[in-house]
Each structure stands twice: as C-alpha cells, then as structure tokens.
C-alpha cells in the first residue's frame, strides 16, 4: 500500500521533470512511509526509497511503523538535519534533480541542502502528496470510523454526568481523558468547551467559566486513531426548558448543517456545499456572524483539503471525508455549532456516510 | 517592556543593514508583541510597528495581550498570509529592505513575499530574536517560578495517591489535569510517565503499562504559565524497599545531576556544565546510555538556547533559566532521570536559583 502510494508520487514527479523527491512535511512522510518519527524525511531516490530519521523509530502505536519495503536509516549525529543528509544521499546516487516541498521547507534548510549538494537542481513538489491524500482508501476510512466511535463514546459518557457547576477546562480535560480511555492515540486537536456567552465559538479555548442553568453548552472534540483525525461538535442546553431564542437558533443551525450534509455528493463543487449551509444562515440575517468556512477535509491532519468555503475551487470525489460544521455565535449571548465528520459516497451506496452518530436533537441536560 | 525589546532588535537589524524586520516565528512574535494569535506576524516598520493577525486576538490569558504601543490590524481576507500582507505594508511605507526569519519562513512564503513586493531586498534576521530571548528579565523569571510551583503542587498531590495498578497514560492525564487545576495555561509539553522497563526514557510516551511493585516510576512534566514553560523530572521506586541496583543507579544519576547544577555559574561554558554531569555517568560505565544533551534553556518554548551538550559553543549568563536533566536508561530494566529547572545567578546572589523544589531523595511509594 505504502509502496503503491510512493509509486503514484514518483509518476507525478517524473511528469514534473524531477527524478527524485524529498518529502519533509510530517503528515506526508507518514502517508508514504507508514511512520514519521520526529524529524524524519523520506527520499524517493533513484535507486531506492529511504526513510531518514533523527532518532530510531519508537514503534509505538501512535507513531506508526515504517513500511517494510523501505530502507530506514538513523542519522549518526543527533541534532543533524535529515533533509540535508537525504540530499547528500540523492547526490551520491547520481540524481540530478530533486523536488522538495517548498511550502514546508524553510529558506534556511533549502539553502543548507544546496550547500551540501550544489550540483542538485531543486524543484518544487508543491502539494502533490496532499493531493494524493484527499481521497482515502477503505483502511484509512476505517481508522476514521473507529476514531468517530471513540468520540461518540466519550461525549455520550459526559452527557450522563452532572454538568452544572463544572468549568469549561474540567469538562475539556475529562473528555480528553475519556478519548484516551477508549483507545485513541490522543485528542485530534485541543478540545473546545464553551458555556453561556462562550458557546458556539469556533476553536474556543476552555476557560474557568462554570456551566450554569440556562446556558448553551457547546463541545467540539476529536480523536486521533492510527494517526487519523476526526471531529464532532454538539451544542446542548442546560436546564429543563430552553428559551425561545435558543430553540430558534438551534433549529436554524441544525437546518444549515443538514443542508450542508445533504449537498455532499460526488461531483458537488466545494463552494456549493458551503453555500447550501451558508445560505440558510444568511437568509435568517446572520451573514455577519458566519465563519470563513463551513467544513474541511480530515485525515492525517485535522484540517486538510478540501476547504468548504465561498471561494474554494474544485469538486468533491467519493471517499473524501469532510466535516460539515456551520455555527452562529452572538457576542455576549453565545451560540450554536453542530459539526459532523462524514465520508462522501455516491447516491447508489446510500449517500454520505455519517461517522459521528451522536444525536443532533437539542438535548436539555 | 515590549517596545524596549523591539528597540533592541531594531538596533541589531540596522547593524545588519536592514531597516525593517518581519518576525514570523510565533514565540518570537509573542516575545516582541505580547501576544501571538494564530498566524500573526510582527513588522518592525519604517514608520511604526504593526502586528498583523489572521483573526482578531482573543484576549484570553493563555494567548497574551498585544502590547498597547503596537498597531494591531486583522487581515480582511480569511486564510490570507499575514507575512505577505506585512511585506506589502513595508513596501508601501517605502522600505527598501526587510530582514526575515529564514529559519522559520518556508520557501513558498518567501517567494510569495517577493512576488507582492519585488522591489524589497529580503535579508536574513537569523536567530536574532532567539538570542534576545536567552537572558530573561525578572518578570519572565517570575512566570517561570509560578509555573514551577504549579508542577511541584501537581506532582506532590500525585505522590499522595495510590499508584500501584494505574497505567502510565492515566497518571499522565491526571498530572495534566492537576496542572490546569492549579492555574497553568496547560502542560508545557506532553507529560512523560514511565514505569518498569519504560522508566528513565527521555520523552517517553505513556503506554497502558500499569505500575507494579518494585518498579522505578519516572515522571517528567511541565507547566505553561503566562506563556512560559518550565519542567521537572523525578524518579521514584514503588514498594517498601528498593533493590540494590536501583539505589546504586539512583545515587549515580543524583550525583551527576548535582554536579550539573553546581556547575551553573555565570561565565561557565555550556559544554563544561554538560561535562560536569556527563563525566559522573561516563566514569561509572554508562557512556553508551547517555542522551545527546544534559540540559537546555526554557522560556516561551520548552526547548530553547542554550543547549548543554558536548559540542555546544558559548557561555552561561546570569538570569538564564536552564534544565539540568541527566538520566540513564537500561534497555529492558528501566532507569532514572532527575530534571530541574534553575536560573543561573552569580555566587554573590547565592548561586543558581532552583525553581522546581520537589525533593530529590529517592522516595519509596
């Protein structure tokens, strides 16, 4: 599998005029090599493919294991730059050109590579590996599915506990502990828990504010499982009876999120999916309160291509996992976000596959 | 204070032939601007200093607040590159040259800057801000001191609880929860808890192994407080009576760590501090088992200059906080690490100031 991915990349490189490629971005290294120990780089060489590591791979579950068809070499000198060492290897193999990830490599490392291998012509690999990563195979989707089961479990358990009086920070830490209890490598991103005026804010960092009766409580968390990251977001109301404005706002965001989910079909333009969700909120007068995007791809990173945003170019393919996560935040009052991870599937296969199955009814807790 | 730091940087830039500087590395932005919202960059301009942010500063404690003497501007277009926008501003102000952080800026961003402002000459700021950051003022040291009190408290509470039968992961999560309980912004780095054969490994990722009678238990954790990161490492033995080899190994690492601490004086060469700790272990026959460094600077990042390592060049100054953290890990058996954060102080002021005061006696828990 990893060898096949590297073969596809090699074909793209050859088409771009580079015989070898040097992959430095950690998620790209992991995608092509099975593991990305800290500081490791992957050389798709003339003679053979080589994973160069700053320190020996730990072999721990969270890190992955290097593909057995790869040569793995550990740098002799601690603190050395594996990218520079890899360029040296490429030059020794007689390579004339190597494509590097200019969107990841720093100017200083680029210069260091040129200085050890001045005869090498350095090209740009651009986002070639990121593009390969967009469409997932069933094994990748299976890892996302298990991660989504873990977040559903962690969230379900939280909802059974007493919430009033606990701080956002405590709830976030408890959710992260539960993720790990249920087998996640770790959280996919810092857990966001917002109460009252903080509810509904995208990427909210938990504070010491305590949950109060009548609050909206919004939670966004994700699990990493075998390196793959998914996310879920839900908003609840605390107390027995939500206020009218809370029910209205919730119903509106729910309708927007459903519209976004229903727009997920192979061939749909990214911007059309975004528009489907966005126009529900727009036409209710919330144009100002809207985030720059209403969803994005997930995988080895939590924020991958595609972006579901007004100016995004391109169309969805089958087997692309994305989030759909519209929300409205009203300064001083709070707000609602609803966020699912789904996999785009053709109509014939039943349409989009919902990975995060926690209910989206408005629960009063 | 922030204005004075920027003034010092401006002088260095001028000496290097650049009239303006563009700071992109987040810890450097925070050091000079008081805050570093995601994607923010700082332009030390011809006319005025400008913090350019991708999204509005949140004003939350963990993020810091932008210095009031700075202009703060939020990019109009979400997803835009603040560094490119800053170069545009510099060019509009009539700047001819701008020094950038080539060790942080990617090749692609460097190129994007050149394409919006082709008339600008781009120089290299190098590690100028990192160098300014090495010697801390008393306010910075005060933040580290409070962080160290927090890690001491979190660790002290853990030691009072039952440990046998609990997993490394659980202990690590509990420590992180306690850090936040006591007021930390968050952990300074992923907490390492190692038991039995995993004990004493630097940067060990906690596993599901449970604490057993007779184990070594080594713990390394840190707190972030007002952005500043400190660390502590301790090793304990589980059960009533340590084995002879455990006492011997502990005493040896303790002696090495003490030698390192005692070598911390203004004017001491980095490599001499390293050698002081290292030779104790070397002469006992553990040369192979030693890590590449025995300590490092801490501050806004957990791993800053200086490096206390055999090949490090330079000398300690007063008011530089460093760790001293020798350890020995014996494959299959486990090991010992002892790690303190201290501030270098002159003899006349009482010598090195120990921030992490948890006892280093061998406790049997």
From TrEMBL, chains A, B:
Residues 5-135 form the Creatinase N-terminal domain. Residues 186-208 are annotated as: Disordered. One of its GO terms (molecular function) is aminopeptidase activity. Keywords: Aminopeptidase, Hydrolase, Protease. Transmembrane segments: none annotated. InterPro entries: Creatin/AminoP/Spt16_N (IPR029149), Creatinase/aminopeptidase-like (IPR036005), Creatinase_N (IPR000587), Pept_M24 (IPR000994), Peptidase_M24B (IPR050659). It comes from the Bacteria. Residues 144-345 form the Peptidase M24 domain. This is Aminopeptidase P family protein.
